[in-house]
Design goal:
With 230 residues, the chain is an alpha/beta fold. The protein contains eight helices and eight strands, in the order E-H-E-H-E-H-E-H-E-H-E-H-E-H-E-H. The strands form two sheets. It has a four-stranded parallel sheet with strand order 2-1-3-4, sandwiched between helices. Strands 6-5-7-8 form a four-stranded parallel sheet, with helices on both faces. Helix 5 links the parallel strand 5 and strand 6.
Length: 230
Amino acid sequence: MNPRLLLVAHGTRAAAGRRVLGRVLLEARKQLAGVDCRLSWVDVQSPGPGRILADGAPTVVVPAFLARGYHVTHDVGQACRDAPGTVVQTPHLGAEPEVVRALMQRLAEAGAVGAFGADAVVLGAAGSKNASSIAETRALAARLSDLMGVPVISGFASAAVPTVAEAVEQFRTEGRRRVAVATHLLAPGFFADRMAAAGGDIVSPPLGAHPEIVDLIVRRYRENSGSLGH
């Protein structure tokens, strides 16, 4: 038997956000024939990861988070530590090459790349009180700046500064004429709505079930499933 895949996401009250995460799981399942693929949530929705893991089945847990914060270290981590069965928690999605490529493509789809694209970009992230999470987002902003050849700074929807709107305004005061917001989120919902209303000229859609994101989740599973046996 192959180990189970448990994808753990934040959770959202937005029906569109729940559908997008369901699509992510569906697309991952297509690449993992013979693997039981499940979805759980750390907030707003149920089931939580602990409920799924309670049956003791060998499981690879992939945190569907773009930055390392409290939900990854505490909520997901504690559920894995408390699980009665054999569990491997993979790294979160982070700033892996797949995430960078997905962000770049979403920006290109929105018209932010090229001769008539943005002359500045705000990387709009959820935000965290965790210093390493903020540092991770800022490092990703620097990477995007190198790739795009325009200034990129981080803005946050919660828990950190500057806000996305403040970051957009900062570029305005510097004379930037076409500011894009790169939505560094997986799914539509409250934070995505906040970024869309932050005053950018261009706002890319959430990463969602982008093939690169699905490939990363599948890679996380495959790189860690061997330690649980087959």
